[in-house]
Structure formats: C-alpha cells, structure tokens
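RECORD TYPE: inverse folding
INPUT: structure tokens
STRUCTURE:
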C-alpha cells in the first residue's frame, strides 16, 4: 500500500536549530535505511523549509511498518497526516473507468 505522509513542526521545534542537533541527520539515515529496518520503501522524501514541512511518499505492506518508521523523535516532534493513495491508473481500474 502507498501512503502520502506530511510531517509538520513549529519554527521553535525546527531541526535546523542548534538545540536539535543531529535529529535531521538521524531522520535522513532512517529514511535511507527504511526498507531494511522497517520494511518500508521510501519513494520520495521532500522538504519545504519555509513551511517547516516534510513530505514522504512511502510504500509498506503493513501500517505497523510505517508506524515504526515514524516513531521516536519524528513522531514526537511532528504532527503527521498519513493518507493512503494509489496511482491514477490504479484508481481508474478500481472505479471501472478502463
């Protein structure tokens, strides 16, 4: 199953601030190793620094794997919106448009 994940944080809780040193690097490493550690394939990981928002497109066989990926400081420091999504072609097939 494919999920679109939006993670937002406040400017005060931004990982670019000195007092949050190392969290951004941990997050990048966690994403790069997601498939091996959590059974989750990260298709894309983007950030909008001005909006203090991360966007992920991930694929996981289980919601538990996705929850594991987003645990720890990621879940503690961000509000998350997780939405199951599908390809346009997949939606057309599901809706009988093909």
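DESIGNED SEQUENCE:
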């Amino acid at each position: 199953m494919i999920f679109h994940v939006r993670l937002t944080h406040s400017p005060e809780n931004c990982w670019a601030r000195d007092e949050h040193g190392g969290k951004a690097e941990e997050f990048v490493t966690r994403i790069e190793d997601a498939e091996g550690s959590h059974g989750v394939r990260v298709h894309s990981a983007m950030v909008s620094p001005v909006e203090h928002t991360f966007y992920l497109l991930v694929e996981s066989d289980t919601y538990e794997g996705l929850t594991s990926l987003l645990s720890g400081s990621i879940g503690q420091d961000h509000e998350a919106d997780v939405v199951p999504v599908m390809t346009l072609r997949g939606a057309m097939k599901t809706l009988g448009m093909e």
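NOTES: The beta strands are 2-8, 40-48, 53-60, 79-85.
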